[in-house]
Structures are given as structure tokens and as C-alpha cells.
Design brief:
The chain is of the alpha+beta class. It has one domain. The chain is about 25% helix and about 30% strand. The longest helix is centred in the N-terminal third of the chain and has 16 residues, at about 5-20. The chain is flat and about 40 Å long.
Length: about 140
């Protein structure tokens, strides 16, 4: 490849990375490494999440540092937060998938693990508020 073409391609790649939409503008993102209060297990299950429509809704479930992270990651005018929490096998799997036949819909699914160890699981997702979702 000619040197000037390499330079142009490099500039385009760097520019795309600099001006790419932030993660919170994707239809769905997962927030990881947030510590939740024990109350989250009383309010959510693996099939029925807690829905946060404002930061105030999260005060019961998160400490100040986690609320700050949520505040920076979520635009509550356009997005909601779903919190799935349960205690189960360490091999439990919780997956998220879009549907090809219904764009704009997200399906969450749970597959129980086979081990008898009881572990806490928390999955936190940020979705566009107009996105349709279901749990299988």
C-alpha cells in the first residue's frame, strides 16, 4: 500500500475512535463491578428485575460511589437501569441477545448451573427507555 494511503487510513481510524458515540448511547450496555446493597436481593430476581427510572430510585440499592458511577453512565431522560439479582449456582449463566426477527427488542435468558454452591449474582444493564425487553 502506498504511504499516503496508509496515512489517510490511519487518520480515518483515529478519527472514528475519537468521535465514536459514547457507550451509554448504545441500545444496551452492562455496568460491571458495582457493589450493591443486600436490599437488591429482596427486590429483584433472575426473571424480575428492579427498574431504575431515576438516580433517586437507586439510593436504596447502592452506596454513594456506585451511584456516582451510575450517574456518569446513564442519561435517565433517555435510559433506564435493569438490575437482576439472585443467589444460585456459581455456574448460572445469564445472557443478553437481540432478536433478528424483531429489531429493537432485547431478550434476557437464564440457564441454571449444575453445581450446589450458592453464590450471589447481580447483573446491571442500561437500556434505552423505549427498547422492548423480555426475560426467558
Amino acid at each position: 500500500m502506498k504511504p499516503h494511503l496508509i496515512a489517510i487510513v490511519s487518520i480515518l481510524i483515529i478519527g472514528a475512535e475519537l468521535f465514536a458515540a459514547p457507550a451509554n448511547h448504545l441500545p444496551i450496555t452492562e455496568l460491571k463491578d458495582l457493589r450493591a446493597e443486600k436490599a437488591v436481593f429482596a427486590g429483584a430476581t433472575r426473571i424480575r428485575p428492579i427498574i431504575l427510572k431515576s438516580l433517586k430510585d437507586g439510593i436504596k440499592y447502592f452506596e454513594k460511589d456506585a451511584l456516582s458511577t451510575i450517574s456518569n453512565a446513564v442519561d435517565f431522560e433517555k435510559q433506564i437501569v435493569l438490575i437482576f439479582a439472585w443467589k444460585g449456582s456459581g455456574q448460572d449463566r445469564f445472557t443478553v441477545a437481540g432478536t433478528e426477527d424483531h429489531p429493537g427488542q432485547i431478550k434476557f435468558s437464564y440457564k441454571p448451573g449444575r453445581t450446589k454452591d450458592l453464590r450471589p449474582h447481580i447483573k446491571i444493564f442500561v437500556l434505552q427507555s423505549d427498547l422492548k425487553w423480555s426475560v426467558k
